[in-house]
Specification:
Blueprint: E1 3-7, E2 10-13, E3 18-25, E4 32-39, E5 46-51, E6 57-59, E7 67-69, E8 73-76, E9 85-93, E10 108-111, E11 113-118
């Protein structure tokens, strides 16, 4: 039985940093693309970053230059109030070596962790 759990969220001031973590049981991250999504109130879930089995990475424009993804974490710097959201980690089967960008490509999802950035 596969389970993912995101953690590391919290309240941070504008300009601060957070490192989110994703823990997994029942699968090995080396065999999957790992993605981080976020969902703000009233908005759709969006991909913010992903890393493929070959180490290739994707960053959404909203976090590009302010974040670094690893297989088990997402480091976010220079946080802004618009980064406030619930962040989810997910894992998807990776056949091409390229990071997956569609939510439909991810078969496993963890419970989210709330990130709140105060102004």
């Amino acid at each position: 039985d596969v389970q993912l759990q995101a953690s590391g969220g919290g309240l941070v001031q504008t300009g601060g940093s957070l490192r989110l973590f994703c823990a997994a049981s029942g699968l090995s991250f080396e065999d999957y693309t790992v993605g981080w999504f976020r969902q703000a109130p009233g908005k759709e879930r969006e991909l913010v970053s992903s890393i493929s089995t070959t180490g290739r990475t994707y960053y959404a424009d909203s976090l590009k230059g302010r974040s670094t993804i690893g297989r088990t974490y997402l480091q976010m710097n220079s946080l802004k109030p618009e980064d406030t959201a619930i962040y989810y980690c997910a894992a998807g089967a990776d056949y091409s070596g390229s990071p997956l960008t569609s939510p439909r490509s991810y078969g496993y999802w963890g419970q989210g962790t709330l990130v709140t950035v105060s102004s």
